[in-house]
Specification:
The protein is an alpha+beta fold. The protein is built from 19 helices and 22 strands.
Length: about 725
C-alpha cells in the first residue's frame, strides 16, 4: 500500500502466539486514522493468522499498514501450498474464517512468494483496483510455479460429489484439531495424544497436496451443481509414500476418536472406504511411474462399494450365526432337562436355518425307541410317529444316531432314494439334515431339521448345524450329570430327614417339605423329638446353597443340634454349644435355625432363633407373629442368643417355616408372611400333611426357587 508505513510481527512458537499477533494488530490500528475499522480489522487479522498457523508453516509473519481509513493486512507463511476455500457447512468446523474475510474486506487475495505464500486483505476505504477473484478461482497456474518437481497425472474417475464434500469436511475437522493440539502442546489445559507429532506430520502436512487437489475439485463440482466429480490429480512420486503414512495416521486418529480422546467423531465407514480406495489407487498409479508396479487403471469406486457390500453380507451371515450360537450357549447354561435343551436348540436352529420344522430325539428308556423331548413346526401326527421311531429304523434321526454320521439330503429324489419311509408321514419335506449328538464315544441323540423346499446346504450352514449339535450334546451330558446329582442329593436329604416326627400327649406335629422348584435338593431341614420325660424339641433350619453339599451340611448340623439337645435341651445351652461347634471347626456355611422347647406339662414354649424367621401363632381369635429376637445365623459369629417364652393354649398352633414359603421376587418378606397369616385366619390349619400341602401351594411363589419347609405344632389339650 503506497504512502503508508508497514509494521510486522513474527509469531513466536508458543500456545498464545495467535493472541499476541491479534494484540499487535489492535495496537497498530487503535491509535491510527482507521481506528473506526478496529473491530473488523482485528477479526479479519485473527482469521488470517489462525489459518496460517493451522494450515501453513513457520515462520508466520503478520504485517499491518494504515492509510486513511483503510487497513492493509498481510500474513505470510513458509508453506507454498495454496489455500482452499471450502463450502460453508454447519457440520464443518473449518471454512468459516475465509467467509468472514470475504464479507468484511474490501478486497483480499493470495500471492505466491519465493519462500511460501502471502494472504492479504484490505479493510475499509476504497480499493486501489478492482478486487481480485477469490484465491481458488484462478489457481490453475499456481502449480506451474513449483520448484521443478516432476508431476504425474493420476486419473481416479467419477465419484459422488456429496461423498467427496462430506469426507473432506470430516478430514478438515481432524486436521484442525490436530493442528490446534500441536500448537497447544505445552499447555496444561489441553490433553495432547502421545503420538501427536507423527500424526500431525502424516495427516496434516505429508499428504496435504493430494487432499487439497481433491477438495478443490469437489468444491468446484458442487458449485456447478454436478452430482459427480471426475478426479484428476497431478502429483509428485513422493505422494505415494505420503499416502501410505496418511492412511496409517488416519487409522490411528480413528482409535483416538473411538476412545473419546478427540472432539472429532470417528470417521464414518463410507468415508473410510473412500479414503482407502482413492489413496490406494494413487499409490499404485504413482509407483507404476517408476516401474515399481505395472501400470494399473483405477478400479471404479462403485465396484469397490459392491465388493464391500458382498463382503459385509457374508461377514454378517457368519456373525449372525456366531451370535445365535452365543445366545444358545447362554440359554443352555440354565437348562436342567432334555426338554429345556430342546426348547432352546430346536427353536434357534429352525429360525437360523429357515427350516419348516425341527426336533430333538434321544433314546427312550425302553431301549428300543426314540423319545422326543421337544419339536418345533411338526404336527401332532408327525411327533407321534417320531416317538414311535425304532432305534434301528431306516430313518434320518435313527440312522444318524446309529452310525454317528450326519445325514444330509437336498431334494425329494434324494429323500425317496435314501429314506423311502419318509414318504408315508413327511411327504411335504423336500430337504433334511439329521446330525448325531456325540460326546466322546457316547451317542446321546440326534437333531433333525426339515425343509419344505429344496435346501442346498453350504459349508457355513453345515458348520453351524454341527456346532449346534456339539453344544446340544455337551448340554445333554450335563443334564444327565445334573439329574444324577439331584437324585443323590434328594436321596441323601430324605435319608437325613426324619421319616416321622415324634408325638406326645397334648401335642400333634406334622411336617411338609418340597425341594426348590420340585427339582434340586437344598438345605432345609426340620426335626421333632422327645428330650426327656416332659419335653419335646422342635426345630426348623435352612443351610445356604443347594445340591449334595447343602444336603450333607444339613445332615451334619441337624445331628449336632439333636446331640446337644438330648444332653441339655435348654435353648440357650443348645445355641451356645452350636456356636462353639461352628467356631471350633471354622465352619463358614451359613445356617439359620429356629429352636423350640415344649414343656408338655404347661402351655409354655421357649424359643430361640439363629437368624431364622419368627414363627406364626394361630389362635381362634387370629394369627400373629411371635415377637422374637432373630439374631445372627450360625457361621457368622458367636451371638448372645435371646430366649423368648410364648403361651400356646389348647386349640392353638405354632407354624414354623423356611423363607421359601414366604419369599417372592420384588416383594418384601413381610408381605409374604402377611399372606400366610391371612390364609390361616380364613382356613384354620389342621395337623395333617394335606392341610400343610394346601397352605404351601396357596402361598408360595408359582416358580419358587428355594426349598419350602413347613412344620405345624398343634396344642390339643392339657395332659
Amino acid at each position: 500500500m503506497s504512502g503508508s508505513e508497514v509494521t510486522s510481527f513474527e509469531l513466536p512458537h508458543r500456545p498464545d502466539a495467535v493472541r499476541q499477533a491479534r494484540r499487535f494488530v489492535e495496537r497498530q490500528v487503535a491509535g491510527s486514522s482507521a481506528a473506526a475499522r478496529l473491530d473488523d480489522a482485528t477479526l479479519v487479522a485473527n482469521e488470517l493468522i489462525t489459518n496460517a498457523c493451522e494450515h501453513g508453516a513457520p515462520p508466520v509473519v503478520v504485517s499491518v499498514a494504515v492509510a486513511g481509513e483503510r487497513v492493509h493486512l498481510e500474513v505470510r507463511d513458509a508453506n507454498p501450498r495454496r489455500p482452499v476455500r471450502p463450502l460453508e457447512s454447519s457440520g464443518n468446523m473449518t471454512g468459516r474464517g475465509i467467509a468472514l474475510v470475504d464479507r468484511l474486506s474490501a478486497q483480499w487475495g493470495v500471492r505466491r512468494e519465493p519462500d511460501g505464500k502471502s494472504v492479504w486483505a484490505d479493510v475499509g476505504g476504497v480499493p486501489d483496483s478492482p478486487s481480485p477473484a477469490p484465491a481458488d478461482a484462478s489457481a490453475e497456474s499456481w502449480d506451474d510455479e513449483r520448484d521443478g518437481t516432476e508431476l504425474h497425472t493420476v486419473v481416479l474417475g467419477d465419484v459422488p460429489t456429496d461423498l467427496l464434500i462430506q469426507a473432506k469436511a470430516h478430514v478438515d475437522n481432524i486436521v484442525r484439531e490436530l493442528t490446534l493440539a500441536e500448537a497447544a502442546g505445552g499447555s496444561a489445559h489441553l490433553e495432547v495424544p502421545t503420538g501427536l507429532a507423527p500424526l500431525v506430520e502424516s495427516v496434516v502436512h505429508g499428504f496435504a497436496e493430494a487432499r487439497d487437489a481433491i477438495k478443490r475439485q469437489a468444491i468446484a463440482a458442487a458449485e456447478r451443481g454436478d452430482p459427480r466429480t471426475r478426479l484428476v490429480l497431478r502429483l509428485p512420486r513422493s505422494a505415494a509414500d505420503a499416502g501410505i503414512a496418511y492412511l496409517a495416521g488416519l487409522d490411528e486418529v480413528d482409535t483416538y476418536a473411538r476412545a473419546a480422546r478427540m472432539l472429532t467423531l470417528e470417521m464414518p465407514p463410507e468415508h473410510r472406504l473412500f479414503r482407502r480406495w482413492y489413496v490406494g489407487a494413487l499409490i499404485d498409479a504413482l509407483r507404476s511411474v517408476d516401474g515399481r508396479l505395472p501400470p494399473v487403471e483405477a478400479r471404479p469406486f462403485e465396484d469397490v462399494l459392491v465388493g464391500e457390500v458382498r463382503r459385509l453380507t457374508a461377514a454378517q451371515r457368519v456373525t449372525d450365526r456366531a451370535a445365535r450360537l452365543q445366545r444358545v450357549t447362554a440359554a443352555l447354561a440354565r437348562a436342567r432337562t432334555p426338554e429345556d435343551v430342546a426348547d432352546v436348540v430346536v427353536s434357534e436352529g429352525v429360525v437360523a436355518l429357515g427350516a419348516s420344522g425341527g426336533g430333538l430325539l434321544v433314546p427312550d428308556k425302553d431301549g428300543t425307541h426314540l423319545a422326543v423331548p421337544g419339536a418345533v413346526g411338526y404336527g401332532e401326527r408327525l411327533v407321534g410317529v417320531l416317538r414311535g421311531e425304532l432305534l434301528d429304523a431306516e430313518l434320518p434321526a435313527a440312522t444318524a444316531l446309529r452310525t454317528g454320521e450326519a445325514v444330509w439330503f437336498e431334494s425329494r429324489a434324494e429323500r425317496d432314494e435314501q429314506f423311502p419311509l419318509l414318504r408315508g408321514f413327511e411327504a411335504e419335506t423336500m430337504s433334511m439334515c439329521a446330525v448325531p449328538l456325540i460326546v466322546g464315544a457316547r451317542r446321546l441323540g440326534a437333531l433333525r431339521f426339515s425343509f419344505s423346499s429344496v435346501k442346498l446346504f453350504d459349508d457355513d450352514e453345515r458348520s453351524f448345524v454341527l456346532a449346534l449339535a456339539a453344544l446340544t450334546a455337551h448340554t445333554l451330558q450335563r443334564t444327565e450329570m445334573y439329574e444324577a446329582e439331584r437324585q443323590a442329593a434328594l436321596g441323601l436329604q430324605r435319608a437325613l430327614l426324619p421319616d416321622r416326627v415324634a408325638q406326645v400327649p397334648g401335642w400333634q406335629a406334622v411336617a411338609h417339605y418340597t425341594p426348590a422348584g420340585g427339582q434340586q435338593a437344598g438345605g432345609d431341614f426340620y426335626d421333632v423329638f422327645a428330650a426327656g420325660e416332659h419335653h419335646l424339641v422342635a426345630l426348623v433350619g435352612d443351610v445356604m446353597g443347594r445340591g449334595l453339599e447343602a444336603a450333607a451340611a444339613m445332615g451334619q448340623i441337624r445331628s449336632t443340634i439333636r446331640a446337644y439337645a438330648l444332653d441339655d435341651p435348654a435353648p440357650a445351652s443348645v445355641m451356645r454349644r452350636t456356636d462353639a461347634f461352628f467356631e471350633a471347626l471354622a465352619l463358614t456355611q451359613l445356617v439359620t435355625v429356629l429352636y423350640l422347647l415344649i414343656d408338655r406339662r404347661t402351655d409354655e414354649v421357649t424359643l430361640c432363633s439363629a437368624g431364622h424367621l419368627p414363627p406364626l401363632l394361630y389362635e381362634p381369635s387370629g394369627t400373629r407373629v411371635v415377637p422374637i429376637e432373630v439374631g445372627l445365623p450360625f457361621g457368622v459369629a458367636r451371638d448372645e442368643r435371646t430366649v423368648t417364652t410364648v403361651a400356646v393354649p389348647p386349640g392353638s398352633s405354632l407354624l414354623l417355616y423356611t423363607d421359601g414359603l414366604v419369599e417372592r421376587p420384588a416383594e418384601d418378606i413381610e408381605t409374604g408372611i402377611a399372606r400366610v397369616r391371612s390364609l390361616l385366619d380364613d382356613e384354620p390349619p389342621q395337623a395333617t400333611a394335606a392341610s400343610l400341602a394346601r397352605i404351601a401351594a396357596a402361598v408360595q411363589a408359582p416358580d419358587h426357587e428355594d426349598d419350602v419347609t413347613v412344620l405345624l405344632l398343634a396344642r390339643t389339650a392339657q395332659e
